[in-house]
Amino acid sequence: MPFKTTGVKSWLIISAFVAIVSSCAVPANTTDLSQNRGTMADKAMVVSAHPEASRIGLEIMRKGGNAFDATVATQFALAVVYPVAGNIGGGGFTVYRTSNGETGTLDYRETAPAAAFATMYQDSAANVIAGLSTNGHLAVGIPGTVDGMVKLHQKLGVLPWAELVQPAIDLARNGVVLTQKEAEGLNNARQAFQEINNHTPYLTQKQNWQAGDTIFHVELALTLERIRDEGREGFYAGKTADLLVQEMQRGNGIITKEDLANYSSVWRKPLEGNYRGYKVISMAPPSSGGIALLQLLTMVEPHNLSKYKWQSAEAVQLITEAERRVYADRATYLGDPDFVTVPVQELLDKAYLEERLSTFSMEKATPSSEVKAGNLTYIESEQTTHFSIIDPSGNAVSTTTTLNGNYGSKVVVKGAGFILNNEMDDFSVKLGVPNMFGLVGGEANAIAPGKRMLSSMTPTILEKDGKLFMVVGTPGGSTIITSVFQAILNVVEHNMTMQQAVAAPRFHHQWLPDVIQYEPDAISPTIRAILESKGYKLEQRKPYGRVDAILVLPNGKLEAGADPRGDDAAAGF
User: Does residue 180 share a domain with residue 97?
Assistant: First the structure.
């Protein structure tokens, strides 16, 4: 049974700790920008998808914890307050830079169960079975979040583990006040929750949830207590593992206790590149984000975007043509580097990228049918969530984590209170067939036991003159890469504040389908007409992404950009 009270808490409690940024956006096609800034802080900042999660991360740093401690606490808090994407039943990536300039990344992406195979979502006629890789128990990859947080804390944390998990337990037990967006999300998912689970998930009720209602996560609190007391074993073994495997068996899933016991997150070397004097540090495969971001920046750099007005016809054309070529490469060459050889150096080679864009003309569009993956010498719902953190010592963390689709697979583990991912859809369920985000995949991303599925997550850190400059990332499925790309350009090329950069309306092209998708207020009607006259197809879509970022100003102060498209909020001191 769901537990509900109305009007128990007031957001005034939170306002003492958190400044929620206004939802102003930069007017389309203008660089006449005022100096409106986001939340400011002198020493430390957390920007996340929920004000409570940001508050908890900040309080950990007030107690003497560092950015890595705050990452763990914020991650577990998001699993409680932001169940649409915050999770312990999913996975993600963390990119970090320490105060002394050391960089690294942690890959806690989900993996395919041992019983998985390449054609598991196809029928006897090799047709993809609709919904099988997106809804229900068979869509679930082995979760990596808890293992990732344990490894991050063991290597870089300073406060005791229990102190980092306890705030999320308190939230789960004391209840979370729903915002309007959160209430609507749960109401929209109610039917799917009821159809997919053979029990009644506590996230559903007969009446619609309302903004201001309080939801209590009692079973999740018990799970988090086991994680607090037992660490990794509190999730991948013992009672939690028993409950997860029992849930799998109820719904014909294939994750076993052996799968859970064998899961391990991986420390990986970050991808690093340069753009107009800025050092860019991002995530390597199995995320496609870092490679794609560096490819995009390298392609547009020679064209000096700053000479074009923001979202002018020339700027939109250049960005679009770069994006379509990068996503074509993504579909062909990228996958889990533990299973396939990903030609990273070739994909990032300047000469190769210059050749890729050499067919671009300002006179007309290049149809995607004419853009294939480049010839090398070597033959992701959009409901992810991102948070950015800088601590008083200057350590910086960029973390993107996900269940994949809204509420993942919609499977709620009975007795454990957490939602499981549907990340198996991020594999190529059939070569050449688009996934839920319209992304086409190839052999490099085919399903195999123990393999990590390709991702678009792009947690990123920028340096300028050897000093920390920006921490940035976003959710958004296939739009993650282009959202991070445009946020960086908004600051570096168009002199926007961090808040303006994340609030500015965006556009997106991903090779296939061959269309420029644009948010309301993005690309002015005049510019759209010019682009259409050159053969571009344009289509308006709902707002997407939740870019959360921090900019280090020349005077050392921190400016947060909290995306107004969600309930995102910044907290700093």
Answer: yes
How high is the pLDDT of residue 428?
Answer: 86
Catalytic entry in 74, 204, 298, 384: 384
Q: Are residues 484 and 361 in the same domain?
A: yes
Number of domains the chain is built from? 2
Per DSSP, the residues of 316-327 read HHHHHHHHHHHH
Burial 453-491 (b: 16+ CB within 10 A, else e): bbbbbbbbbbbeeeebbbbbbbbbbbbbbbbbbbbbbbb
DSSP 464: E
Question: Tell me, what's the pLDDT at 230?
Answer: 98
Question: Residue 437: which pLDDT band, with cuts at 50, 70 and 90?
Answer: low
Q: Using DSSP bridges, classify how beta strands 384-390 and 396-402 pair: parallel, antiparallel or unpaired.
A: antiparallel
Side by side, the strands of the sheet bearing 103-108 are 266-268, 103-108, 91-97, 396-402, 384-390, 45-48, 569-572
Q: Are 434 and 440 in contact (CB under 8 A)?
A: yes
* Residue that has been written with the tokens 């195999």 in this structure: 448
Which residues in 379-431 belong to E strands, given as ranges? 384-390, 396-402
Which structural domain range is residue 258 located in? 4-25+40-116+128-267+383-428
**How many CA atoms within 13 Å lie on the side-chain side of 572?**
30
Q: Is 30 inside a domain boundary?
A: no
Please indicate, yes or no, whether residues 9 and 141 belong to a single structural domain of this protein.
Answer: yes
Q: Give the sheet arrangement for strand 176-177, strand by strand.
A: 4-6, 213-215, 176-177
Active-site residue 385, yes or no?
Answer: no
Decide: 356 and 28 in contact? Cβ < 8 Å. Answer: no
pLDDT tens for 323-343 read: 999 998 887 888 899 999 999
* Its pTM surpasses 0.90: yes
CATH of the domain at 339: 1.10.246.130
188 and 138 belong to one structural domain = yes
559: buried, middle or exposed (CB in 10 Å: 19+, 13-18, 0-12)? buried
For 55-108, what is each residue's pLDDT tens digit?
999 999 999 999 999 999 999 999 999 999 999 999 999 999 999 999 999 999
Whether 165 is in a domain gets the answer yes
Give mean pLDDT, residues 442-451: 89
Q: What is the pLDDT of residue 374?
A: 55
Least confident of 121-130, 162-171, 518-527, 543-552: 121-130
183 vs 126: CA distance, rounded Å: 39
Write out pLDDT tens, residues 366-412. Answer: 887 787 655 544 334 567 999 999 999 999 999 999 999 999 999 99
Token duo for residue 546: 């939740």
347 three-class SS: helix
**Cα three-residue angle 253-410-264, rounded to 5 degrees:** 60
* Residue among 455, 454, 444 at smallest CA distance from 339: 444
Asked whether residue 173 falls in the same domain as residue 315, the answer is: no
Classified as helix, coil or strand, 6 is strand
- Residue 455: partners with Cβ closer than 8 Å, 6 or more residues away: 93, 109, 286, 287, 288, 289, 380, 402, 426
Does residue 389 share a domain with residue 371?
A: no
